[in-house]
């Protein structure tokens, strides 16, 4: 005679709610998350306001180039760099990986950039 054993089946456990990703703030918009997570660079409030008021949008390709430039400057030991990207000039804190300010080509004439120790031409 064959013996049949029965096992009690336990109901599946519902997965716990996923906590928000580390560093993501409630209500944070896509551009801010992209800037901080994917590109690895942050934009100061001042730089964000300057870009927005001048209707300057960095393309994903420009963001990649900007990050590459920041990485090169970091590799050379730079702390604060003037990054010239297409028609833009950006002052970047290399240590904090933060764009501090931005200016368009039209604003570059007769301008003086201070407190920088390097320049990156992209």
| CATH fold-type name of the domain at 41-121 | YaeB-like fold
DSSP summary: helix tally: 4
Query: Proportion of β residues?
Result: 15-25%
- Find the count of extended strands (DSSP E, 2+ residues): 5
Stretches with pLDDT under 50, minimum 5 residues: none
Mean pLDDT across the residues is 81
Identify the strand order in the major beta sheet.
1-4-3-2-5
- The helix-strand sequence is HEHHEEEHE
Look at the helices and sheets and give the structural class: alpha/beta
The CATH architecture name of the domain at 41-121 reads 2-Layer Sandwich
Broad CATH class of the domain at 41-121: Alpha Beta
Would you kindly provide a written description of the structure presented here, covering whatever features stand out?
The protein is α/β, with parallel strands linked by helices and 122 residues long. The protein has a domain at 41-121: YaeB-like fold. Helix content is 31%, strand content 20%. The chain has 4 helices and 5 strands. A 5-stranded mixed beta sheet has the order 1-4-3-2-5. The longest helix has 16 residues, at 60-75. The radius of gyration is 24 Å and the shape is elongated.
Helix-strand layout with pairing:
Elements: H1 30-38, E1 42-43, H2 45-53, H3 60-75, E2 80-85, E3 88-93, E4 98-104, H4 105-108, E5 118-121
Parallel strand pairs: 1-4, 2-5
Antiparallel strand pairs: 2-3, 3-4
Tags for this model:
single chain, about 120 residues, alpha/beta, YaeB-like fold, 5-stranded mixed beta sheet, 4 helices, about 20% strand, elongated, Flagellar operon protein, Flagellar_put
